Amino acid sequence: MDLQDQLKKLFPEHQLSNDPEEVEHKEHTLFIQTEPIICKYEKRKGKSTTIIEGYEGSDEDFKLLAKELKTKLSVGGTFKDSAIIIQGDYRDKIMILLKDKGFKVKRVGG
Known about the structure:
Elements: H1 3-10, E1 37-44, E2 47-53, H2 59-73, E3 77-80, E4 83-87, H3 91-100, E5 105-108
Parallel strand pairs: 1-5
Antiparallel strand pairs: 1-2, 2-4, 3-4
């Protein structure tokens, strides 16, 4: 007894079709805000970190932005307490990437 026979026994009314399912792809755009995003430098546990905070949109959009920044910079980081924490001092590169996306960015600390 193969898998198809088992499925027919479990779901006798189900009709198999070879037509591909249509999936809608929505283009997702980030929320552009009025206040600047704050990009600051801190040392945490002796290691340098770049912290980005002040985003006014949804947390899901901010998580997507965090993932994109981490992949473009090839660094580690996390999204925590409505802030993106990037390992290392990448303020200049992050500010350029955010400005290219249309955000206003303010540099804090050094």
